[in-house]
Amino acid sequence: MRNDKIAISLFSGAGGLDVGFEKAGYKIIWANELDHDAACTWRANRPFDEAVMREGDIADTISELARYSGAVDMILGGPPCQSFSVAGKMDPDDARGKLIFTFLDGVKIVRPKAFIMENVKALGALKKWESVRQKYIEQAKALGYNVGYFIFHTPDFGVPQNRDRVVFVGVKGGDPQLFFQEMNKLKSHAPTAREVLLSVGKYGSADNPGTCSAAITLAKSPVLRKSPYAGMLVNGAGRPVDLDGLPPTLPATMGGNKTPIVDQRALEHEGQVNWFVDYHKKIVAGTCIPATTVIPDFVRRLTLKEAAAIQTFPPEYKFCGARNKQYRQIGNAVPSLFAYKVAQAMRSVF
Description:
Layout: E1 5-10, H1 16-23, E2 26-33, H2 36-44, E3 53-55, H3 58-61, E4 74-77, H4 99-110, E5 114-120, H5 121-125, H6 130-142, E6 146-153, E7 164-171, H7 176-185, H8 193-199, E8 218-223, E9 232-234, E10 261-263, H9 264-268, H10 275-285, E11 299-301, H11 304-310, H12 323-332, H13 336-349
Parallel strand pairs: 1-2, 1-4, 2-3, 4-5
Antiparallel strand pairs: 5-7, 6-7, 8-9, 10-11
Helix pairs in contact: 1-13, 7-13
């Protein structure tokens, strides 16, 4: 598709959202990211446009956007979500939560034809954040935009991950509901965890090296749920992956004992019962003692390559920085396939 739409990317991260918009034909002419490693990743995958990435605090660079006023089709971005996430502290005084309004400052300066802001589901769903939502919408309307916000289950759009996100849409002279209607036309089936993990190369090979050495140790006092893929069977927040279902939401805190866990034997041999399924049954039945149970060698952590595939980054996408920094970039990203569907929907109606 021809790059005939001009876009600016704020809070770009490693570029997951940008990948989707670029694939849909948007040319990003200016981008900003505070995190050094994420900015390096963004540049590494766009060597022809390195100067476009303005690394650093957006407060120090946002004035540069004045040069693009009235000449941009789209501003897109995913401001930090930790303030609103149920996985975080949900602190209304967290300065990061105010960055959604900094995003609107960029919109005010540039006056694009439309904008897309992505964030965690909680920002769009919880009553706790209703006043924040309304303030955001009112400010966007004051800038001349019709605004809507929509919560999407990303597996409905082909993303192999149990991940829900909210998308705020602002358009000049258009109805955001048209975007929502178009998104419903773009739904597709998501592959299973097994299909995704097998697609990236054999674990331990040059194509898919083991990249997380965090030990897997059983919790002495496990927190049990009905499913062996929930609760807390091991120390740390990393849970076993249901190979025939969807991987869990990948957190930015991966890289250590919060990294999801894979049964390699069950992955390679369809029909083989996941080790944690049997272990869970024994715990429930009271027939084993966690302290005396040994985890087999074929139980291991999710690799960087696998995590990137679950987030639907292109296979050739390069990540910069230490391994834990790469895991963080992947967990923080917008799934690229979902971003592509969002961009397609926007191009179709606006």
